[in-house]
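Researcher: Sequence recovery benchmark, item below. Answer with residues only.
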């Protein structure tokens, strides 16, 4: 039996051996991207937070908006860019998010895009909240671009990110904890560079596929 992440292994015994085979990406295509910034020109590029996901309740984007509201109090120039499309059945959820975002200074929804790499190339921190957490590719893509990830401690993110090394794993019930970790990375360029390098190393040594 094959599962994608260790947390997906149930406690009861299986009738056959269980093997963990995580998702993978070709990390090479996310590195050394040179392009003009697609971010809102009014955003400070040194304080750019971002995420890439579909707009759906399971992604808990309201959690990110709560964290952003705290970050803006400490770092008024910090911005949050959310890349992803809205399914027609999720319009009510989107309307609620949009209404909440209007109360914040620097939040932008950009919709679906054909290529997330230009955004990843200009994010300083990648944030991710997803319950229940599967085995996400979005975090791998961010790490391959050298962007530290701050994610909730769930699902495959636990296997992908070593807390404090490539990014941070935080409680899924505490936006304040996520806000603190994101702010810590934004105000310390040397620490950001350390975690960025660790992310690139992790993708090269532990997760990258297609390198042959």
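Model:
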């Amino acid at each position: 039996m094959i599962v994608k992440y260790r947390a997906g292994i149930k406690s009861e015994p299986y009738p056959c051996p269980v093997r963990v085979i995580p998702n993978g990406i070709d990390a090479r295509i996310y590195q050394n991207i040179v392009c003009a910034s697609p971010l809102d020109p009014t955003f400070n590029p040194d304080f750019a937070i971002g995420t890439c996901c579909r707009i759906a309740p399971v992604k808990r984007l309201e959690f990110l908006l709560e964290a952003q509201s705290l970050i803006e109090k400490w770092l008024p120039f910090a911005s949050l860019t959310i890349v992803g499309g809205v399914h027609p059945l999720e319009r009510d959820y989107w309307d609620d998010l949009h209404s909440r975002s209007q109360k914040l200074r620097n939040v932008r929804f950009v919709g679906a895009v054909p290529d997330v790499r230009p955004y990843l190339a200009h994010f300083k921190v990648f944030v991710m909240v997803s319950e229940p957490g599967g085995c996400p590719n979005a975090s791998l893509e961010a790490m391959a671009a050298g962007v530290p990830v701050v994610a909730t401690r769930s699902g495959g993110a636990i296997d992908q990110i070593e807390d404090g090394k490539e990014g941070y794993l935080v409680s899924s019930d505490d936006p304040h904890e996520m806000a603190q970790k994101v702010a810590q990375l934004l105000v310390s360029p040397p620490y950001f560079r350390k975690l960025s390098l660790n992310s690139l190393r992790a993708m090269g040594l532990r997760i990258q596929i297609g390198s042959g």
